[in-house]
Amino acid sequence: MLEILKAAYDRPQALTQNRHHNLINKGSIPKYIYDYYPVNQEYYHEFNPYFVHLIAKETLFPEFRVFTVRDGIYTFADFLLKYMKEIPKWKTTFLVPASYAPIIPPQLQDQFFSYAISQKKKPDIQKAKTVIVFALLCDQYLSSYEDVEKKLSAIRGLPEDVKIEVCVSLRKSPLLQDEKENLHFIHIPEMIRKAAGNREITWLRMRDLMDKTILKDAYLLDLIHDNTLTCDSFLHYLFLSKGGMVNALPATTGKKNLFEIDLSFHHVLEVNPLPPVAKNAFVDLLFFTKLNKGELWSHPKFHAEVQKHITTSGYHNS
Questions:
Q1: Which of 204, 192, 196, 203 is nearest to 145 (CA)?
Q2: C-alpha dist (Å) from residue 115 to 10, 48, 69, 262
Q3: Are 14 and 46 in contact (CB under 8 A)?
């Protein structure tokens, strides 16, 4: 299997390269993806980072030897259930977070590796000259308000010359059938003001954030809770490739990995075998499909079933 990784690295075929980008018909992708912006933006590396749930034609997958999955837990579980019989025919090797291992069908595990993204330097908010707080204001991006307050406590006690910038955007929860009313647009800004104390806060539009060109000495305090929406946020890639720091990803440990790719000068993709699991849960998910109708990715009971088996966040969130 290591030979497959080496061969794919030497001859990359990524969807985000111009010659393959036309394989995706963006007019047919589910509407929920528009509520992901900017965490769902495309970027390039040799192992094809993309959302498998957005690919309408399964005949595309055999074109790629290695495919890095960026999907969140529900859409990835839905993908497995739809294509469990076709995946062996594709002979594609998929990279997924280690936390996804419990739902990989046992008969397909030889086509899956685990991956993690880490920063080459330990993120230290005390060394930042600018701290940027980011969140999409929807239930599926945030956890409890207590969890948000814990994350925001990191900006208390910072030197007075540290700039505090905030970019929060009100969104609907993309993967829910029925939207529940919430007051995040009131509570989250107030919690940020409380944590910042007497410091001046600069409120950013999304365009202002995305147009930043130099992020050296900038620290992204992302309020993302887990990998419900994505296990690989483009925003993290953007910050790290421009020299910034991200709270939600760990520092590289220096341990020996099966395979590594430098995604930039500042962060790395680490590839390893899937970890062993005490109990494989794919049969439970398959049984769920026999008893329930409709789209699984937007089914609240399906969400609860997946959460029984994928309990780790996939994000560092220190």
A1: 192
A2: 18, 13, 9, 13
A3: yes
**Beta-carbon contacts of residue 184 (< 8 Å; ≥ 6 apart):** 137, 138, 139, 142, 170
- Beta carbons of 65 and 4 less than 8 angstroms apart: yes
Please give the model's pTM, rounded to 2 decimal places: 0.94
- Strand pairing of 93-96 and 112-119? parallel
Q: Where are the beta strands (DSSP E) in the chain?
A: 49-50, 66-69, 93-96, 112-119, 130-137, 163-170, 201-203, 218-222, 245-246, 259-262, 267-273
Per-residue pLDDT of the chain (318 residues; tens, 9 = 90+): 789 999 999 999 888 887 787 778 888 888 888 899 999 999 999 999 999 999 988 888 998 999 999 999 999 999 999 999 999 999 999 999 999 999 999 999 999 999 999 999 999 999 999 999 999 999 999 989 999 999 999 999 899 999 999 999 999 889 987 777 889 999 999 999 999 999 999 999 999 999 999 999 999 999 999 999 999 999 999 999 999 999 999 999 989 999 999 999 999 999 999 999 989 999 999 999 999 888 899 999 999 999 999 876 677 765
Query: What are the structural domain ranges in the chain?
Result: 2-119+269-309, 125-249
What residues form DSSP beta bridges with 222? 134
CATH class of the domain at 125-249: alpha beta
Element (H, E) at 237: helix 234-241
